[in-house]
Amino acid sequence: xxxxxxxxxxxxxxxxxxxxxxxxxxxxxxxxxxxxxxxxxxxxxxxxxxxxxxxxxxxxxxxxxxxxxxxxxxxxxxxxxxxxxxxxxxxxxxxxxxxxxxxxxxxxxxxxxxxxxxxxxxxxxxxxxxxxxxxxxxxxxxxxxxxxxxxxxxxxxxxxxxxxxxxxxxxxxxxxxxxxxxxxxxxxxxxxxxxxxxxxxxxxxxxxxxxxxxxxxxxxxxxxxxxxxxxxxxxxxxxxxxxxxxx
Length: 247
Ligand SMILES: *Cc1c(COP(=O)(O)O)cnc(C)c1O
Hints:
The chain contains 8 helices and 8 strands; from the N terminus they run αβαβαββαβαβαβαβα. With 247 residues, the protein is an alpha/beta fold.
């Protein structure tokens, strides 16, 4: 999986595209932030780096990208020792038996959606003397076979996780259903924002609502207008994903 490398020429071309893409994304983030009454610097751009070769990620970091998120535990672990300094997060579906590879290695796990998973994160965090910061992933479209806790179970789950000593909840994350109707997407984002604000106002112990992580390449500006303060952007930044090249 790791043997293929990009040629110098391919790398140069990807670096050029990346620089252009980043400019566009930054200006759209700025515009959406200002439109929704916030400062551009209040919005965190997290680069979603699955399938992106390490030299390209490191170039993004050189260009000022501060946060990266990986989806697969194995890919993250392969890349970690090669990455330039940056804030490293996990954003993909996580199985309890893989938690051991992440605790102490990432600043935030964005995809906690069950008691079982949170319990394992807490257990290993206590064992390793760290507190792991997490977001709760919400299945806002209530889609079958999709990760995330259902909206009606969100509060119960928060109540349970808030008692776990090794875990600190910092906010919410979602991937809304794919739909061609932008208004529908807005309604999912707005619902998320409402949960975020409601939970914030309850001031639960050990639960803070600092991050509302929603919006990807096709809809990050819209997500910001609806209240997101973290967007996870992959293909709009790095181009179409190519599988099998990591160096
Ligand atoms: C891949 C991925 C993204 C980025 O997707 P793009 O559409 O390429 O921007 C964001 N969030 C998660 C959880 C992802 O897996």
